[in-house]
Amino acid sequence: MKTKMKNILEKVVPVLKTKAFVLSFLASFSVVAVLFAIALIVSDVRNEIANEEAFREFPTPPRTLWGPTPPEPEEEPCDLPPYPTLFSALTGRRIYEGYAMRRPLAVVVNNIRASLPQSGIASADIVYEMLAEGDVTRFVAIFQSYIPEKIGSVRSARDYFVDFAWNHDAILVFHGASPGGHTRIRNTGITNLDGGRLEGQVFWRDRSFPEWVGNRGTRSLEHSSFTGRERIEAHIESAGIRDLVGLNPAYGFQFGEIEQQSIGTARRVVVPFSPNYTRTFIFDEEEQIYWVSNPAGPHLDAETEEQVAVTNILIQFAQMHSLGDYAGRRNINTLGEGRGYLATGGEQFPVRWQKSSHTSPTRWTFPDDTPITLSPGTTWVCVFQAGGSILFE
To answer: Residue 328's pLDDT is what?
Structure first.
């Protein structure tokens, strides 16, 4: 009996010892793992507190692609930028990186005198100005860096307006269109927001003038359509519209120091669109910008109450002719090639433009076929009658 018990113990004891060792090891490992996890949590908390201390003075970047643009970062040197930035393809200026790739808006903005002042025009990265009908010009304003809360008043599109939106892969925003405008919108398939369909959703009516302009009465109905960032953002999201710009670098410009030879001064540039409507730009040497004026005086923004200013002026000479309809509409040929001028820094330079199709971006070059270089800042493009004269002083 004693021999059997001894044999049993000789077999069982090693097994028990092994199990005890394993259990002891697992218990010890669990304790170490728990202590390590606690250490990581404490470390994360400390790091978060440190980060809050380090960034306490800086704003939190917007979380959405279409949110309000934060203020520009400090000028260099800047030890710790408040948010990541890139350089805008439309202005060459620093821009929050979340907005550098958002799809621009191309808004058709009313410019008849009875509709002024316009809302949001001073915030546009690029403004195209051209004759619509009669002696009246109209704008296609390109917004990317900053989308104002109120833009307008918004007016109807023409066929050639569509081409200017395609220059930057922009969403075309308008309220109604001419027969030719509707045809080109449909044929090119451009993404668009039409106030004729979206009034009350993306667009609203406001017949009042800003108080600071004095007693102007009320706007007529055709000059009272407005839109803005919040409503556009909501519609883009709900409709599933593509909100990132295409990767083609031709949708933007090159910026930097111009190495071409100037052909003269451009401290005052006068563009006589018609006998009754002249656009004037006056160069400010200290600010290195052009102040924009119309026949009534300084061209003002209704929201900022300030005069519009741009850094670059492009003159695009294009063939125009009347359509002969009851409204006196025009056709402007944006295809093919033509000549023009660049005014920047108080100097003028000859340029060329080429556009191969309605949906391709316009290519701007100097006479030697090198891409044009703009000064960092906003740009005003005057689409003007081929053979016409521009005054440079």
So the answer is: 66
Average pLDDT over residues 51-58: 32
Query: 298, 149, 302: which is closest to 233 by C-alpha?
Result: 149
Please provide the average confidence, as pLDDT, over all residues in the chain. 84
Query: Do 351 and 369 meet the contact criterion of CB atoms below 8 Å apart?
Result: no
What's 307's DSSP letter?
Answer: B
Compute φ and ψ for 307, nearest 5 degrees. Answer: -75, 140
Retrieve residue 238's tokens.
Answer: 């709900």
Starting at the edge strand that comes first in sequence, how are the strands of the sheet with 204-205 ordered? 151-152, 225-227, 204-205
Single-letter residue type at 292: V
- For the residues 70-86, what does the mean pLDDT come to? 52
Question: Would you say the pTM of this structure is higher than 0.85?
Answer: no
Torsion of CA 229, 235, 240, 243, to 10 degrees: -10
Contacts of 196 (CB under 8 A, 6+ apart): 175, 176, 177
Angle, CA 53 vertex, CA 52 and CA 58 arms, to 5°: 75
Within 10 Å of residue 189's Cβ, how many Cβ atoms? 8
| Interatomic CA distance for residues 333 and 337, integer angstroms | 10
Work out the percent of the chain whose per-residue pLDDT is above 70: 77
Of 360, 352, 315, residue with least CA distance to 335? 360
DSSP state of 199: B
**Peptide bond preceding 117 in cis form (omega within 30 of 0):** yes
Tokens (6 digits) for 22: 């394993």
135 within 8 A of 215, measured Cβ to Cβ:
no
| Alpha helix stretches (DSSP H) within 98-228 | 159-166, 179-188, 195-198
Tokens for 365? 């070059």
Query: Is residue 235 within 8 Å of 201, Cβ to Cβ?
Result: yes
> Token pair 């004095």 is at which residue?
214
Give the DSSP letter of residue 311.
S
Of 367, 371, 312, residue with least CA distance to 345: 312
Nearest C-alpha neighbor of 340 from the set 390, 305, 303: 390
Instruction: Please report where in the chains the tokens 């009042």 appear, as a residue.
Output: 208
Q: Structure tokens of 81?
A: 């930028």
Q: 326 Cβ partners below 8 Å, 6+ apart?
A: none
Q: How far apart are CA 380 and CA 29, in angstroms?
A: 70
